[in-house]
Design goal:
By secondary structure, the protein is α+β, with helices and mostly antiparallel strands. The chain has helices at residues 11-17, 20-30, 59-62, 127-136; strands spanning 34-36, 41-45, 65-68, 83-89, 100-102, 115-116, 123-124, 143-145, 153-156, 161-163, 172-181. It has 4 helices and 11 strands.
């Protein structure tokens, strides 16, 4: 983060990042000494029709978020960092408006090899990796997670996850917040 980095640091952002219920949930996993990791995102998911032909860098922030594990986007010095992602939809989310989908228990399989998408230049897991992980864990397919506004989902940094297209006629917003143990990169 540099002085000229575009970011919102108003009181609403600070209040959300320091919400005692969110922090209590994260601390129940990581322990009592945590800090907010700088890898944070606001994801805007317009209706799919509004994005046709718009393949570009950063597409996952405004379109389909490709399959990935959060650990894969961390720098190499953070290889052993204990990190939890808090995914928070700002609207009710169902199968129609770009829900998060996960491979349950995939964190137990470790970090999988990621590749760079030719169209978006984003790190992604190949479809065969998702299929083989589901099969090896006894799942027929990834799990779609409908959620209500105000819900949070805590993700291990090795959980395989993605967000599918928004087939509704409304915008969908969500936050990706990350926390890690104090003193870890």
């Amino acid at each position: 983060v540099r002085a000229d980095t575009d970011m919102h640091v108003g009181p609403q952002t600070f209040n959300f990042l320091t919400n005692h219920r969110v922090l209590d949930a994260v601390e129940s996993i990581l322990g009592g000494e945590i800090y907010s990791n700088p890898i944070q995102n606001v994801r805007i998911k317009p209706p799919n029709g509004a994005l046709k032909g718009q393949q570009q860098f950063g597409q996952g922030l405004i379109g389909v978020t490709p399959w990935h594990q959060d650990k894969a986007v961390c720098t190499s010095d953070a290889a052993d960092t204990q990190l939890v992602t808090v995914w928070a939809p700002l609207h009710d989310v169902d199968e129609s408006n770009s829900p998060i989908i996960i491979v349950p228990e995939s964190h137990k399989k470790g970090l999988a090899p990621h590749c760079v998408s030719q169209s978006t230049r984003e790190l992604t897991l190949p479809p065969e990796t998702i299929d083989s992980t589901c099969n090896s864990l006894g799942h027929k397919e990834p799990l779609v997670l409908p959620m209500k506004r105000g819900d949070i989902l805590l993700l291990h940094n090795l959980t395989m996850h993605a967000c599918i297209e928004n087939h509704s006629s409304n915008m969908r917003f969500s936050l990706d917040l990350r926390y890690n143990v104090t003193g870890q990169p």
